[in-house]
Queue: 3 jobs
Job 1
Amino acid sequence: MSTKRLRVLVLVCSTRPGALGPAVGTWLTETITPRAGELGVDLMSLTIDDLGLPFLDEEEHPSTGIYSHEHTRRWSAIAEAADGFVIVTPEYNYGMPATLKNALDYLGPEWAWKPVGFVSYGHTSAGTRAVQHAKQVVTTLRLVPLGATVALRIADAVHDGRVRPEAALAGAAVGVLDELVSVAHALRPLRERYSKDTLPGPLPGSYVRRLVPDDAPEVTVLQRCCWVEEAVANDTLAMPALHEPLEEVRAWLADWNATGLWWDGRLLGMVRTRRRGDDWHIGRLAVVPDLRGHNLGRWMLRTAESAGEECKRVVLSTGAASHRNIAFYESEGYQVLPDGTPGATHLGKTIPTRNSGTTPTRTFAPAGRA
């Protein structure tokens, strides 16, 4: 399971003056906040009224992600940033409020592969028919509705405009959050794979994306398993990749342009690059040991090279006794440079042109300090 923090949006749907929705939303957030802290979840709460959405007024279809109005772009940014949703809704005439349907219809890709839980309230049915109505819509948007719900029958659960403290209801609310967190973590690989910020990888179902400081735990594990062989070959443990603490990994992830190859939530490989003068530096090229021999390292190397086309030379280094690595780089056109460091071998070559057909058609732009 990913160690990244999740962001959960609690969305209160009723905009009727004097509506009970804000009180239910307040009760919900107060009830689940302690558990959210234990689970590493950031809660955000707002009402649909806060969004200022008129009846759908975008010309382009929501699936395009092309929005002409500021209110749509703001709503898009909020929904995109969320890893899951809890919708607080009343029941109007056996269905969900028009405000909720309108808010859902505004967006498209922002919903995909995110869990959604429901807290409903009403009279005879406690709002459950609104939830059933909403589930027909959210599944079409590729939202994943939870099985756990909270249904408040107003006559039993509400007194003087506030939700009565009750252990069973509180437990049900925490249960919604627990299930939402589990499903959100499980769906994260799908969300990443189909994100606009990813590119297809060399294996079916794999993808590449920029590595960020939040990826430090996964990067640290990959480094530990990949640099043991080099440490043995060079008879030394004095290799940063073997002993860097998380803080240092986070620091260089912010400083370098690092790319990760992922499949089903697993980090299969990585490489980092940055520019220094006319040189394009490549480092920390790694592939999980069980997938070596599938040309993933070669693919990652060529991907890294293609991002430095404005430089004159690409340079990298490996252990002086890492003969397997050196042979691999020489097979890719690198030559050993004379300005070696004790215990290390530096290699370089002229920046290649993009004509091999083995690298992506676009690469991640350099980031961080040069």
Job 2
Amino acid sequence: MSVREFVVLGTASQVPTRHRNHNGYLLRWDGEGILFDPGEGTQRQMLRAGVAAHDINRICVTHFHGDHSLGLAGVIQRINLDQVPHPVTAHYPASGQKFFDRLRYATAYRETVPLREEPVTVDGPLAQGATYVLEARLLSHPVESFGYRITEPDGRRMVPELLARHGVKGPDVGRIQRDGRLGEVTLDEVSEPRRGQRFAFVMDTRLCDGVYALAEGCDMLVIESTFLDEDERLATDHGHLTAGQAARVARDAGVRHLVLTHFSQRYTDPSEFERQARAAGFEGELTVAEDLVRVPLPKRG
């Protein structure tokens, strides 16, 4: 049975707190795991969350600030220590190649697992999995930063009433799904369009075209909200978003489930992020992320 869920490993921004680890997130998408922005302590947070090195198929780094990447060394070494039985692919800004190299080879260890490096240079598709396309969009931050988007191709949903009307049942249902036709009956006559799921991961950035392109029509948008709205000037100066800005992006993009994360240590009341997101007009499902929570992707519409 396929599983699609978002596992939060850490939610702090530049400075961790007693209750928030540095960044780290795993998206379970059917049989694959995509690890985003492993900051310091990610390996230990994986253990606490029940995430194994074997669960990782891809690593996606948005940019090379420490709270988003210093955990790479430990994660890569753990992948090799556990002898993960499949290749792992790493995506990251090409401009940060020297930082990736330093982290990959920070200390001595025995390499046992092929790690494919696929640095990101421009907007567009990066890779295609069995049930998704991974793409990147440039964001606006003091260092080069990319956000990531996962899109499932659109498909067809079988409609029981239409199947019964045309006398299609049993093994014939699978045949018409596979072949597109069963005798004189076409797939379109017994099914309806099913929109593929969409997920986006947007970290350190000001408002920019890339943010809106990544968020458009997403079933789940994971997005930084480092600051509260009263500190919008500070957010802009440092290349970040506020809770209200992130929520307005989600509102205008038609996002179904908004996940806010990457919080400054200056704030102690998480409910204020939710209050400001609702005040900005977002009416969909909303999660103010906490470390070690699991958030299922919304069911397909």
Job 3
Amino acid sequence: MKRIAILGSTGSIGTQALEVIKANPDSFELEVLTAHSNADLLVQQALEFNPNTVVIANEALYDKVQGALQHTDIKVYAGANALNAVVEMGTVDMVLTAMVGYAGLQPTIRAIKAGKHIALANKETLVVAGQLITDLAKEYGVNIYPVDSEHSAIFQCLAGEFHNPIEKIILTASGGPFRGRTAAELATVTKAQALKHPNWDMGAKITIDSASLMNKGLEVIEAKWLFALKNEQIEVVVHPQSIIHSLVQFEDGSMKAQMGLPDMKLPIQYALAYPNRLKSDFPRFNFMDYPQLTFEQPDLETFRNLQLAFTAMEQAGNMPCILNAANEVAVAAFLRDEVGFLQMSDIIESCMAKVAYIANPSFEDYVDTDREAREKAIELINN
């Protein structure tokens, strides 16, 4: 029985993780639920799953959550400090970090230092501070299990192969809703169009990132740290059907791929239950439904975010932190209809050029870099 804390339980990954836990009551016990501002859903989840503790990060909503749960034995806390503290609880075995963005970094660090194994759905943690996080995981003897479908695929392909060196990995990308579009066509796309992903049902921020290929760029950087790869060992191939979730090529030329229908519950369950595979009723893949699987090169000139991510990875230091912060601000502005689709790349590129570069950043440097990059991005948007 693994006792689980879910950071970000009201988001897409968090709600699907609860489905996995509900379907496997003999394998998992829910200890902690946290949310940022979705108090209503947090309360609903707490009443259904009866965790030990819930945290609402938005302190203004504490009274609402506390009032709704006061007739239960569930402990209710609020604020960032509470979020950082609950991951250290002795009753927690594993922390699923399903928060979106930079906000996931600090609680993940606290969880690692408390010796909790991590099921990582918050890719920004490794994008922003990959060296720091991997060093801490080694120091505290903590395993990081990937939840992203692509990284889960690589992890699954490596089962039984950990002693065999990787020649390269290939991350697959659906290409998003705008695959094949020209820059001129992208200049006029709307928020509503960008939020319609062809294969996956995700939150708004990740869906926009997928449309711009920034999500794939962040996954490239995440893969470097998860699997201790050199930059040149990572490739991206567009695979519109999203059936092959990624591949590993070994030194003998052999390749392994992990396949299946697009369903995030499978990688969530694999991460939570590792090293066991639990029986599931997830829909099964049928080759006859997909008589053709196709592949193509990503268009790095039109979808510049993916190239910017490769550039940030190559420059290393705090550059991926700059990339991530600028992207978070740019996506939020796009969702508010304040900037166009292509302007997001302009904002990110400008921040990468103007925010101070640090080759060997400390945690405090990451905090300062994140703030500076956000301020620069906001300045660019307002001007």
